[in-house]
Amino acid sequence: MAKDHGNQIKDDAKYEALRKDGMSQEKAARIANSPGASTRGGKASKLEERTKKELVEQAKKIGITGRHNMKKSQLVEAIRNH
């Protein structure tokens, strides 16, 4: 049974699995709390297939600064490494 992480974590089991795989607390919490994370199952489009506008929006959601001055390839790298 997954440990209860309180109200701040919506999917405790997913959070624990991500942490066990070596993900940071912040990133694991963001994924475990995202709506529909467990139902999407990897159906999101690849970052390279998205438009620059979509990448800028994604970067904004996760708090990447300087995103408007980045090239598409730089946005992809920044999102992956965040």
From TrEMBL:
<dbReference type="Pfam" id="PF07498">
    <property type="entry name" value="Rho_N"/>
</dbReference>
<dbReference type="Pfam" id="PF23855">
    <property type="entry name" value="DUF7218"/>
</dbReference>
<feature type="compositionally biased region" description="Basic and acidic residues">
    <location>
        <begin position="1"/>
        <end position="29"/>
    </location>
</feature>
<feature type="compositionally biased region" description="Basic and acidic residues">
    <location>
        <begin position="45"/>
        <end position="60"/>
    </location>
</feature>
<dbReference type="InterPro" id="IPR011112">
    <property type="entry name" value="Rho-like_N"/>
</dbReference>
<feature type="region of interest" description="Disordered">
    <location>
        <begin position="1"/>
        <end position="82"/>
    </location>
</feature>
<dbReference type="InterPro" id="IPR055642">
    <property type="entry name" value="DUF7218"/>
</dbReference>
<feature type="domain" description="Rho termination factor-like N-terminal">
    <location>
        <begin position="47"/>
        <end position="79"/>
    </location>
</feature>
<protein>
    <submittedName>
        <fullName>Rho termination factor N-terminal domain-containing protein</fullName>
    </submittedName>
</protein>
<dbReference type="InterPro" id="IPR036269">
    <property type="entry name" value="Rho_N_sf"/>
</dbReference>
